[in-house]
Specification:
The complex is a heterodimer. Chain A is an alpha/beta fold. Chain A has 2 domains: 29 residues; 138 residues, Glutaredoxin (3-Layer(aba) Sandwich). Chain A contains 5 helices and 7 strands. Chain A is elongated and about 75 Å long. The termini of chain A are far apart. Chain B is mainly α. Chain B has 7 helices and 2 strands, in the order H-H-H-E-E-H-H-H-H. Chain B has a two-stranded antiparallel sheet. About 4% of the residues of chain B have low confidence.
């Protein structure tokens, strides 16, 4: 094989490698039920510092991806706040993740709906991408070991929360 | 007295004249349309100028506020990156993997130029007539041909 053939093959391999790298780096990801949920740190929507799903290891966590511009997010926010009021504590919390949203708009949303549960900010949507979300709102129920136990692509309501989430929480009589 | 009156008139004029100083701080340095053609709607995955989604509307309103506040294009883009990350920029960054968007076309162009040059040179070389064997042709006609030519010409009465 001549030098020219080697150079041509190397050029083709480099080109294909570049394309593959580009596709893989921009490709989709996602988690399935039973897998450990991503827990990379995110800035808090209100206040300073970062927070992470890992901060709540040992608790059940309902991770709620939302954005202030999303209509269904506005519809489900009161139900989530009520559920947090009833069940939030050392064994459970809702964790809001404001995704691909303006931080000022996100803070306005929290204030408008009086949301008391912790809120993280995912401005570039990287964490939403790691979870494999297809939009907002989406809800992931994470068990105390950090594994996904249920996911809902779309808004949740009180009926769902009481019938599907509440029975899983410790101390539930259901 | 006259000087005082003149001074008072000048002072009044200065106070009444429209002062652009305060306004100049918020003079738009760019426009929504200019920014919208260079940034993305992160949710839609299209240029902001083409997007009409609720998120895009919020983003446009955000840009409009900054334009009205007199921010420059770079300042507004920085603010958008702070909100949405670097993927909000429509043009690739000059670092990391995005750098390949600038480097690869240049390298490909150079490779194409070199390959074309080599190809043309080879083609021209292949098109050259092969060297003839035997003695080179003599200059001018042979003596017999010259005599025949002279005889032919003599037949014409020019």
């Amino acid at each position: 094989m001549g030098a020219r053939s080697v150079i041509a093959i190397l050029a083709v391999l480099a080109f294909v490698g570049l394309l593959t790298f580009g596709l893989l780096s921009k490709g989709s990801s996602g988690i399935a039920i039973g897998e450990v949920a991503p827990a990379s740190p995110l800035p808090r929507l209100e206040g300073n510092g970062d927070g992470s799903l890992a901060d709540y290891r040992g608790r059940w966590v309902l991770v709620n991806f939302w954005a202030s511009w999303c209509g269904p997010c506005r519809e489900e926010a009161p139900a989530l706040e009520r559920f947090q009021g009833q069940h939030g504590g050392p064994r459970f919390t809702v964790l809001g993740v404001d995704s691909r949203d303006l931080s000022g708009d996100g803070r306005g949303f929290v204030k408008r709906f009086g949301l008391s549960y912790p809120q993280l900010r995912d401005g570039d949507g990287a964490t939403a991408h790691d979870f494999g979300t297809t939009g907002v709102p989406e809800n992931y129920l994470i068990d105390p070991q950090g594994k996904v136990r249920a996911l809902v692509r779309g808004p949740v309501d009180e009926e769902y929360l009481e019938s599907e989430v509440a029975p899983l929480l410790p101390g539930s009589s259901s | 007295m006259r000087r005082r009156a003149t001074l008072a008139a000048l002072l009044a004029l200065a106070l009444l004249a429209p002062v652009p100083l305060s306004a100049s701080a918020a003079t738009p340095q760019t426009s929504l349309s200019e920014i919208s053609s260079e940034v993305m709607c992160p949710v839609c995955g299209t240029l902001l100028e083409l997007a009409e989604s609720p998120q895009a509307q919020r983003e446009k309103a955000f840009v409009s506020r900054l334009v009205a506040a007199g921010r420059s294009k770079d300042q507004i883009k920085d603010a958008l990156v702070a909100e949405y990350g670097t993927e909000v920029l429509a043009l690739p960054q000059g670092s990391g993997f995005d750098l390949s968007a600038y480097v690869v076309p240049v390298v490909a162009f150079l490779i194409a130029v070199v390959a074309l040059t080599i190809g043309v040179l080879k083609w021209r070389r292949a098109g050259d007539p092969p060297d003839r064997e035997g003695p080179p042709a003599a200059d001018g006609p042979s003596p017999e041909d010259a005599e025949r030519l002279d005889a032919d010409l003599a037949r014409y009465d020019l």
